[in-house]
Amino acid sequence: MSLRRFIARRGTPAELYSDQGTNFKAAEKELHETFDGLSLELQQLLAKQKIAFHFNPPAAPHFGGAWEREIRSVKSALYTVVGAQSVSEEVLHTVLLEVEAILNTKPLGYTSSNIADLDAITPNILLMGRLDGALPQVVYNKSEGLSRRRWRQCQVLVDHFWSRFIRYYLPTLQHRQKWHTTTVELAVDTVVLLMDPQLPRALWPVGRVIKVHQGADGRVRSADVRIKGKIYTRPVARLIILPAIPDSEEETDSVAVQAEKTA
Fold first, then answer.
1. Which PANTHER family would you find in this protein's record (predicted)?
2. What predicted TM-score, i.e. pTM, was given to this entire model?
3. Domains in the chain with CATH codes
């Protein structure tokens, strides 16, 4: 049923990566048995819609990498936000979909073009081919979390999730080891994502560094970032470097060659 819901919402995937959950294994087995039982003509017609299942080894959730880490962060935030309070199925369903929308608007990288406004690539662009079209949010007092008005309750829960997610998950995207060895520092023209807990949820300000400020030890401690014509000065702890996504195969090859030279 989960697979059917996913296909109904997003379309049939070409490949599916997952752990070896019994529900996923059973779905793969049933689909294979059904496909093998079809006539040759039907198999040829449906071959284009066949899903390739890829399973992680048993007892190895770390093979999931990035998506498993993000799932853990979402679960931790939801456990804390919802806790033991009683919520209706409708409220919980709405909260989960709002959380899904937040994650699908998070920038993954940017297109390496020379236009003034940076084009941040988000999951929504990959899924829908366009920018996020979410409705403006409504902000309610935290006391409304226990309200009998389910709309207000779900909005307060989503606000709580956003505040915890941006506080505990986004900092993990920064690679900030101890400076025992020389590391690549923030530089001018670097594209960054600005973390600001004061902003409304699902807002991901992306800008370009125009100036860096060094501390007494010569390390970059803060930077000026231009975002949509405005300049913000923020410490490096609030800035996440976004990778460039090449526009063409030639640019992809040049980036790979440059990375190989650097290594």
1. GAG-LIKE PROTEIN, PHD-TYPE DOMAIN-CONTAINING PROTEIN
2. 0.63
3. 2-63 (no CATH), 64-173 (no CATH), 191-245 (2.30.30)
